[in-house]
């Protein structure tokens, strides 16, 4: 009796269908809200990266009213999450831009007293809420494989960088649709 009352509290008003209350990162859509790093964030946009090796990554542009961050995840054998911030490409390393634009990325560099090494790279077709484009990406990790630098090169001869880190799924909570 008590169990059926509790169960009915979580049923939708239309047709008695179950309502999902335990959303995961995989469910995120534009307009949804989540908590990360003791702040609430709104998903302002989503993008899907289809890599030349056949893998797929997902990215959500997050905003808390002041700051924009990028939550990236790939779903394979396990969920791999990372969070990135915009970064000044030239401040990271003076050679990164020219090397990225020439398609010949640096193999390693030092940034903020950390040694970074190239760990991955490739071409991707990106489809976001607003546009579609192709890009080339190089991912660098520090020696602990915790801190990341991501460098993107685009067909219009522009390049940009992002700094970030790997996070755990449990770091993202209270995922709610609008």
Please supply descriptive tags for the structure shown above:
178 residues; mainly beta; 3 helices; 11 strands; 53% strand
Question: In words, what does this structure look like?
Answer:
The protein has three helices and eleven strands, in the order αβββββααββββββ. It is 10% helix and 53% strand. The longest helix has 8 residues, at 2-9. It has helices spanning 2-9, 89-92, 96-101; strands at 33-36, 39-51, 56-63, 68-75, 79-87, 108-111, 114-128, 132-142, 147-154, 159-167, 172-176. The protein has one domain (2-176). It starts with a helix and ends with a strand. An eight-stranded antiparallel β-barrel has the order 2-3-4-5-10-9-8-7. The chain has 178 residues and is mainly beta.
Concise account of the structure shown:
The chain has 3 helices and 11 strands, in the order H-E-E-E-E-E-H-H-E-E-E-E-E-E. The chain has 178 residues and is mostly beta strands.
Q: Uncertain runs with pLDDT below 50, 5 residues or more?
A: 1-10
Report the portion of residues in β strands.
Answer: over 45%
Major β-sheet annotation:
8 strands, antiparallel, barrel
Whole-number count of domains: 1
Q: Classify the helix fraction into a percent range.
A: 10-25%
List the helices and strands and how they pair.
Blueprint: H1 2-9, E1 33-36, E2 39-51, E3 56-63, E4 68-75, E5 79-87, H2 89-92, H3 96-101, E6 108-111, E7 114-128, E8 132-142, E9 147-154, E10 159-167, E11 172-176
Antiparallel strand pairs: 1-2, 1-11, 2-3, 2-7, 3-4, 4-5, 5-10, 6-7, 7-8, 8-9, 9-10
